[in-house]
User: Which sequence fits this backbone?
């Protein structure tokens, strides 16, 4: 994220001095954009059950599904209307707090689409523990017989063996250009995902791709272009890059 901010500032600010860049970051925060807060897609999100309401994830891990934690022994204030004052004279349920905690547990376990992991422990900090009663309600009394995770994983791996017949990873022209220019540059840009100055100042790869797409579509309908027509297609598909050097742009267009 930081490298992207630096690259954007370098492209539009017209200066590379430090203090204007710091002012740029301050303006972003004042405008409601905090560059320090990043939520990448390929990452573990840690949140409370309340924060997870309405969301779903491929894998969900619910930790500390134990007595005294879920359900919690910490009681909130009593409900505003005591059951003694109700028309029926008795509470709607025996333990309304337990009902709320059970609903919260239901929310947690239903966030998972593919795999749900429930964590518990017999002893925590020498104070005891043990599985939550919600686990018994969900899986039965014999929790060890309910699921053997290690065996389940072995079965899953055997049923989905890894083969080399899968789709090949796509490599863009820009990635190739990075590698040919410098393998270390490729590592920073592609492997680490840092935003670096482009080695291609005229967006040659994008222009070539647009021309090839046009040639491919014509070939599908039997209109194979001649060498002269290919040159015309390249000119028609060519889009100058922002802030491109006109001389380099013409040379790249003519050479390709």
Assistant:
């Amino acid at each position: 994220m930081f490298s992207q901010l630096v690259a954007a500032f370098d492209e539009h600010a017209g200066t590379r001095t430090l203090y204007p860049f710091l002012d740029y970051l301050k303006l972003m925060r004042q405008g409601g954009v905090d560059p320090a807060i990043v939520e990448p897609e390929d990452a573990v999100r840690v949140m409370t059950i309340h924060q997870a309401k309405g969301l779903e994830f491929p894998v969900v891990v619910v930790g500390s599904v134990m007595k005294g934690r879920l359900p919690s022994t910490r009681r909130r204030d009593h409900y505003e209307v005591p059951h003694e004052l109700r028309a029926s004279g008795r509470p709607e349920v025996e333990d309304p707090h337990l009902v709320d905690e059970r609903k919260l547990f239901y929310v947690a376990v239903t966030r998972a689409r593919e795999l749900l992991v429930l964590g518990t422990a017999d002893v925590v900090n020498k104070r005891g523990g043990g599985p939550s009663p919600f686990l018994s309600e969900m899986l039965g009394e014999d929790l060890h017989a309910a699921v053997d995770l290690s065996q389940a994983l072995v079965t899953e791996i055997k049923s989905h063996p890894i083969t080399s017949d899968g789709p090949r990873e796509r490599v863009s022209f820009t990635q190739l250009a990075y590698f040919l220019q410098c393998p270390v540059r490729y590592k920073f840009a592609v492997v680490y995902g840092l935003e670096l100055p482009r080695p291609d100042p005229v967006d040659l790869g994008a222009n070539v791709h647009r021309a090839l797409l046009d040639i491919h579509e014509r070939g599908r309908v039997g209109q194979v272009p001649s060498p002269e027509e290919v040159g015309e297609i390249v000119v028609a598909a060519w889009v100058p890059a922002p802030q491109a050097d006109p001389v380099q742009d013409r040379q790249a267009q003519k050479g390709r």
Remarks:
- The chain has eleven helices and two strands.
- The radius of gyration is 30 Å.
